Amino acid sequence: MLFLNLPEAKGIVQMQLTDMQGRTVLSRQMQANSEMKLELPELAQDMYILSAQTGKQILRKKVMLD
């Protein structure tokens, strides 16, 4: 499970998790709130890129699942 804190996000947040080869492994839409939980299926322990988009703002972060 991945916890996100996006205090300035409003409305719908489009989440996308991609592996280091650029393949999308997870895509979700969530209602924005101060703390969001992203359920992760059984993904391999690896480095991923998390993209969160609200309107015109996009946040990208590397995350390590272990």
Description:
It contains no helices and six strands. The protein has strands spanning 2-5, 12-19, 24-31, 35-38, 47-54, 57-64. Strand 5 and strand 6 form a beta hairpin. It is globular. It starts with a strand and ends with a strand.
Weakly predicted, low-confidence segments:
none
Can you count the helices? 0
The global form is globular
Mean pLDDT: 88
Radius of gyration: 11 Å
Helix content: under 10%
Along the chain, the helix and strand elements come as: EEEEEE
Q: Give the distance, in angstroms, between the N- and C-terminal Cα atoms.
A: 11 Å
| Number of distinct beta strands | 6
InterPro entries: Secre_tail
Protein name: T9SS type A sorting domain-containing protein
